[in-house]
Amino acid sequence: MDDRGRIGLAIGFGAAIGGVVGYLLFTDRGRELRDRIEPRLQDLLSEVDQLSRTFDRARAAATEGWQSFSKLMQDETRSGAEAVTSAVKRGVAAADAAKDGPSGRTH
Question: What's the pTM value of the predicted model, to 2 decimals?
């Protein structure tokens, strides 16, 4: 679609929206329709607001859970690395002891 087509489409949508808004605001039937729709719209907006707050709480809980999991994994990784380092040191000490023999001298 070229620029002229898009401009024409935008003008058409703008005119349609303007017509609906004018009908709702400036006619008696529009006012009656608004009076019937308004309570439902308020209920819908209230539900959307409540849903948004629920999502915010869920996101906060998920973030907290992820942070706890990450910290736990870091602690476990650190503990595992310390265990490996300790085992390597014991292995090196045992190898040195075997090399030195029972008398403590190198063969």
Answer: 0.46
CA distance 103 to 88: 24
- The string of pLDDT tens digits covering residues 47-98 is 999 999 999 999 999 999 999 988 888 888 877 777 778 877 887 777 777 7
Beta-carbon-side half-sphere exposure of residue 75 (alpha carbons within 13 Å): 6
Note the Cα 13 to chain centre separation in Å. 35
Alpha helices, DSSP H, located in the chain: 3-26, 28-100
Q: 99 CB contacts (<8 Å, ≥6 apart)?
A: 106, 107
Euclidean distance between CA atoms 31 and 90, whole angstroms: 86
**pLDDT tens per residue across span 1-12:** 789 999 999 999
